[in-house]
Each structure stands twice: as C-alpha cells, then as structure tokens.
Amino acid sequence: MSLGYALRRIVEEYPLARTDPPAGHPLAHVIRKAAPDELRRALAPLGGPFVVKGSPGRGSHWAAVPWLALFDPAVTTSATRGYYLVYLFPAHREAVHLSLAQGTVAAIREYGPRSGDHLRESGARLRERLADFAAHLPVTAITLGCAGELPEGYEAAHILGLTYDLAALADERRLHADLATGLAAYRALKARGGLDLPTQR
C-alpha cells in the first residue's frame, strides 16, 4: 500500500461502507491502522515526532467526514483543540482535502453558535501569518458536503491547504512533496505564534 492508494480507498469505498456497521469493517481498519501507517512512513524523512491518527467515527457510528491527521505533540494530540494537519474526505464528491486546520470542538465549546464566525475570522488572520505559503497551499476554503456541527466546524476551521481529485492521488511523489509543504506551514505557524493573535482594536 502507498499513501495515495490508502487515500483513494477511503474516497472510493466510504460511501458504500457506511451502509454496514463499522465494527470489524475492513475500511474502518484502513482508516484506523493502514492509512496512518502509510502516513507515518511518508513522514519518516521529514523529522518528528508526530502523533498520527485516523478516525472513521466512534462506536457504532461512521463519521459524516472521516479524517487522517498528524499532530505535533508540542501543540496538540487531538483534533478537538490547537491546530494540526489533516486529510478530510468530503461526503459529496470524490476528493480529499489536505487542510492545515484549527481545533473545532474547543471553539464550539468556547464560542457556541458563534464558533464558525470565530474560526473563519481567525483563519483569515492566520493566513496572513502564513502568506509565504499562499502559492503552494492555495485552497483557502473547503466544502465537505454535509450538514452538522462537526463538518461545518471543519469547514470553518480550515486555514489553508490543497484539494485532490482521484486522479491526483496516483501521483505519489506529488503527495509526498505536498505533505512536506503542509508540514513546513504547520511548523511555521508554530514558530510564528500559533493561534495566539493580537487583539484587534
């Protein structure tokens, strides 16, 4: 298996997989184990350490939007808070988003119904902080094709990144190069103050 093959399997198989229970499902295993293993292999030449996790959902429920993420443990080890680099799989199209994203659940807990506005506003200011990556990670907004607090939160939490269609996932060299670029942006955000933004007047 390669990183591109693992991502492609999730894209292609997830809609049908969701018609069966996730417990013991082969694709749930790919998302939890095989895909994270491939991402770890791709990260190996880039230094670390990183925590890598994949989530097909919880318990007996598939996620509306599955994800595969890497976390700098000095920043966060969870998609709920901080910021991290993540592959998100939209429900409405055969594609994958590579997203430098803000933690969603922490924002929902703190800001409630205003969390989306807060995340979009801070994302815009964080893009200014990472302006030197704009040409290489040009996607500034993503859509995930489903309603709900978490999918809509993921959309709002996006800072910058890339979107791949199925054909692009066959280019393993590009995926590795883009991963290195995404990781460089992640590290740059950490070095430049993370999510701490000056109070606007």
Task: Please describe the topology of this protein.
Layout: H1 3-17, H2 26-43, E1 51-58, E2 61-71, E3 83-88, E4 95-102, H3 104-111, H4 115-129, H5 149-157, E5 158-165, H6 172-191
Antiparallel strand pairs: 1-2, 2-3, 3-4, 4-5
Helix pairs in contact: 1-2, 3-4, 4-5
Give the strand order of the largest sheet, numbering strands 1, 2, ... along the chain.
1-2-3-4-5
**Which band does the percent of strand residues land in?**
15-25%
Q: What general form does the structure show?
A: globular
Question: Roughly how many Å apart are the termini?
Answer: 51 Å
The average pLDDT is 95
Order of helices and strands, N to C?
A: HHEEEEHHHEH
Outline of the structure:
The chain has 201 residues and is of the alpha+beta class. It is 42% helix and 20% strand.
List keywords for this structure.
201 residues, alpha+beta, 5-stranded antiparallel sheet, 5 strands, globular, 42% helix
